[in-house]
Amino acid sequence: MILASPSPAALLLTALTAAAYAWPAIRSRSMTGHVARIWVAVAWLLHAVLLGQSLLGQPAYFGFATALSMTAWLVATVYAIESRVYPQLTTHWVLSALGAVVVVLAAFFPGKSMTGDTSFWLPLHLALGVASYGLFGMAVVHAWYLGRTEARLRSAAEPHSGLPLLTLERLTYHFVLSGFILLSATLVFGYGFGDVVYGHGHAWRWNHKSVFSVMSWCTFAVLLVGRFGFGWRGKRAVAVLYLGSAFLLLAYVGSRFVMEVILGQRS
Predict the structure, then answer these.
(1) pTM of the model
(2) How do beta strands 112-114 and 60-62 pair?
(3) In the structure, how many helices (H) and strands (E) does the chain have?
């Protein structure tokens, strides 16, 4: 396994971003919510610069760690917007810690270079896929909050997120539906326009990535039908959400992790 060697400037920026994410996680018990949000906002801005260097540089790089990094940044973005609408939402240390981890991963596993002969449509295809990752990531975060809130209510403790159960549940499935629409667009784009997206001779193939992608799509479809058609809720619905998210994570991130890290392939 060969790691990439970031430049000193990139390494410094990565360290600053990871530290800005990690500090609220380390000081979660003593740091106020306002101060934590300031730290995460600084980390978010530094993170955006890192992503810009990776995706807009010459050549641009993209791989499993970059996809995770973009997903974490999107989750932070949506969560920040949502916290303005629902001030009761708190900055949880787990999200900050995950941000720190994926930033470091992306620095040392940048993925493959997007060469000059890359199709113009491939970045759009990747953007749709990563956006669906971000929305399903938000759904998972809310489902986790939902479970914690239910457990705390049963034990007569203060709700963990500060949001009512019905609001958390509604938000969770709004994110699932939005993610499902983007995932559907990603699959249609890749399947129907494979030659345009991947270049001539590289049309849709039934490999691990496509199989897991279709499995995740089917799982989320079952979840949405169960939710809106049969009123699914609670642990059963959340379990299906987690399963579909696991399939989706294995689709691109899992496949590229095996190729880039375990097999050492950059092509």
Answers:
(1) 0.86
(2) antiparallel
(3) 10, 2
